[in-house]
Amino acid sequence: MKTATSAASPTAGTEPALRSAGTKIGYGILYFVLYSAAIIQMIPLVWLLFFSLKNNQEVFNLPPLALPKHPKWENYQNVWSQGNIERYFLNSVWITIIAVVLTILLASFVTYAITRMRWKLRPLVLGLFMTGMMIPVHSTLIPLFNLFQKVGLTDSQLSIILSYTAFNLPITIMILLGFYYALPREVEEAAIMDGCTVNRMFFRIVLPMTLSVIVTAAIINMIYNWNEFIFVNTFISSDNLKTLTVGVQNFVGQYTTDWGAIGATLMISILPILIVFLLLSNKIVEGIAAGSVKG
Amino acid sequence: MDKVMSNKKIIALYVLPALLLILTIIYTPIVLTGYYGLMEWDGVSAMSFIGLENYATLMKDGAFWSSVYHSFLFALLSTVSLAVYMLISLILAGSIKGAGLLRKIYLIPMLLSSVAIAQLWLKIYHPTNGMLNAFLSSIGVENTPAWLSDTKLVLGALFVPILWQYAGFYILIYYAALKNIPASLVEAARIDGANPWQIALKIKLPLISEVIKVTIVLAVVGSLKYFDLIYVMTDGGPNGASEVMASYMYHKAFRGFDFGYGSAIGFFLLIICMLATWGIRKLTASDDTIQYS
């Protein structure tokens, strides 16, 4: 595939020497464009890191992309202890973990029943799960708020966990489906012949065999849950139950003038995602490609 | 084997928990939002049935239609920007060194929360100390704009972080699709004397047309649902200049305590998203399905 080169190179028939010179220039331009785009994607984040290490005086007087002589790491210490950031962070961690585990387990059950078991309503149920992906969260917000109020779940983290699980089931099932369809059935058939029960087979054979796609789905789920805003913002009113995304929003609203503190808070909120990205970027790419029907 | 695998009890055990959850949390609410739209309701006291009054008011509500217009403007811009992402992906999927690393770097903003991105871009656009105006002043621009409080600039200013956030997502999808095209097809066209433009337009794009359709649906429906970023950055302001459908619904319901009217907007949003999905599918439907190999 030489599309890249030739997109900018002269048409066929020109002298070879000229063509290779043209090719080189063409390549140069293409690399320039692609790497500029990469820099544009990174600069705002680099700038964020830098101003999270400055005090206001340095933010206002130094050039945007200059580091201060003494980076103010204490910005991070200060926001972690003040303003409930530690509380928000722990809430985010545990809500994310519980919702991810619940989603993966329920989605694996459904995917298993859809790909392996025989029942009439299978196409309808699959359709319901897949259509769930297109439904805007906002259209469900008011009735959900009312529902949770009626059953006493407003201002409870359970309402958040249930909502995350429900809305992430479709994409999780979608990611799992492809893998389940491709999985050879011989092992399962042999196990059934040997008198293994379906439950035992599911937990002992199928779940372990799908571990790699489970990891992929779990990371995608983790990113969505960690970043979710509108459910927590709508359903949770007590400050000590909020997650980091909403907490950060409140914190930044209160401290609009302290740039270092805001920068440090934002860095803390995105750091877990950046770490997961550095360690598992291939899995993330795989998961997004497999579940690309969700926007 | 057949008998074991069609055991109704086990099937119910495996499917029902998840099914009940989505029926309760996704499907019941979308029916209810249409129903609540027929009510006058402040969210606290009892509802009273008022028929289609909310929907009739909605049809005449200028502020609502202006939010619909903004949402569709975002949808249009997002769709047009797909062409740029496609161009980058075509280049990237050629023989470019470091393509794998580049597309991962492009993807980073998409993984971050819209709230964090919104807060960051609020700072970038800060009239006096933001990165953008600092840069503009340094190259001699006087009277640097107040990006987010200027009614003429605010929509454009909001669209830039949206582009920045989602570029990597679409590039990743296009790149994966382009890499899936059998090399033999491209090779055959080249031997027949097709130039790269022709190969891209006549061979590659038609082969990945299904993926392109999906991304158009994603871009349009995704734009119609924008909320987080706009809510945090401008809250629909200044003076409604950046209000979109979802933020208008949120304001009416959770700030104005007009939950009946908010529900009607929510129902309208649902219908528009469904219609858009269906319409794009219909418009882009082709009779001839393409065989890969």
TrEMBL record, chain A:
Residue ranges annotated for the ABC transmembrane type-1 domain, each copy included: 89-280
TM region positions: 29-53, 88-112, 124-148, 160-182, 202-224, 259-280
Pfam families for the chain: BPD_transp_1
Keywords carried by this UniProt record: Cell membrane, Membrane, Transmembrane, Transmembrane helix, Transport
Major localisation: membrane
Places the protein is found: Cell membrane
UniProt xrefs under InterPro entries: MetI-like, MetI-like_sf
Similarity remark: Belongs to the binding-protein-dependent transport system permease family.
Name of the protein in its database record: Carbohydrate ABC transporter membrane protein 2 (CUT1 family)
Organism per entry: Fontibacillus phaseoli
Upper classification of the organism: Bacteria, Bacillati, Bacillota, Bacilli, Bacillales
UniProtKB/TrEMBL annotation, chain B:
Transmembrane segments: 12-38, 68-93, 105-122, 153-177, 259-280
Keyword flag Transmembrane: yes
Keywords associated with the record: Cell membrane, Membrane, Transmembrane, Transmembrane helix, Transport
Cellular localisation: Cell membrane
Domain of life: Bacteria
Membrane-topology descriptor: Multi-pass membrane protein
InterPro entries for the chain: MetI-like, MetI-like_sf, UgpAE/MalFG_permease
ABC transmembrane type-1 domain location: 68-280
One of the GO BP terms on file: transmembrane transport
GO cellular component: plasma membrane
PANTHER family tied to this protein: BLL4140 PROTEIN (PTHR43227:SF11)
Protein family per UniProt: Belongs to the binding-protein-dependent transport system permease family.
Name recorded for this polypeptide: Carbohydrate ABC transporter membrane protein 1 (CUT1 family)
Organism for this UniProt entry: Fontibacillus phaseoli
The organism's taxonomic lineage, starting at the top: Bacteria, Bacillati, Bacillota, Bacilli, Bacillales
